[in-house]
Design brief:
Layout: E1 12-17, H1 21-37, E2 40-47, H2 56-85, E3 90-95, H3 98-108, E4 112-119, H4 128-133, E5 145-149, H5 154-160
Parallel strand pairs: 1-2, 1-4, 2-3, 4-5
């Protein structure tokens, strides 16, 4: 009997990037899973649009600053991913609503196979993206979603991934 080989080369773990602690937990989980399965990590940063229609120049400046900050954050996180997995992640920068851009990216990129999100474990709930994707937008996902509790330690993540 021949054992099926798990070809992880096509397994891409997508993490939505922000500044939250739970995102770092999700990122570590995605990196460990990618490392153990021969997969890869992808990072999505969404520049949320500011509503400054009256002052177009101010809105443009704010958008450019937010994009620059996002790109810097992505570069820092890409270095972390490379250190943990031995390969650079796929990077995506988009503008608009985080939920809409995430769903659009998943639809446009068939290579993305797993969405990994970190959940806030505080009283505010898991976060607006998780609430949306586990609620009325669940039917728009074409792939599995892994929700990682944001209070897990590095050791706990390493044990389960």
């Amino acid at each position: 009997m021949t054992e099926a080989k798990d070809d992880g080369d096509d397994r891409i773990f997508l993490v939505v990037v922000d500044e939250s602690e739970e995102m770092h937990v999700a990122l570590r989980f995605a990196c460990r899973r990618a490392e153990h399965t021969g997969g890869r990590v992808a990072l999505l940063y969404v520049v949320e649009q500011a509503d400054f229609q009256h002052w177009m120049a101010v809105g443009d400046l704010m958008r450019e600053e937010a994009r620059s900050e996002g790109e810097q954050l992505l570069q820092k996180l890409a270095a972390m991913v490379n250190d943990m997995t031995g390969s650079l992640p796929v990077l995506y920068v988009r503008e608009g609503s985080r939920r809409e851009q995430l769903l659009d990216l998943i639809e446009e990129e068939p290579s993305i196979s797993i969405l990994v999100l970190g959940a806030n474990t505080g009283r505010r709930g898991p976060g607006p993206l998780i609430e949306a994707l586990t609620g009325r937008f669940l039917g728009k996902l074409r792939l599995p979603m892994t929700i990682v509790p944001g209070n897990l330690s590095d050791d706990a993540i390493d044990k389960i991934s």
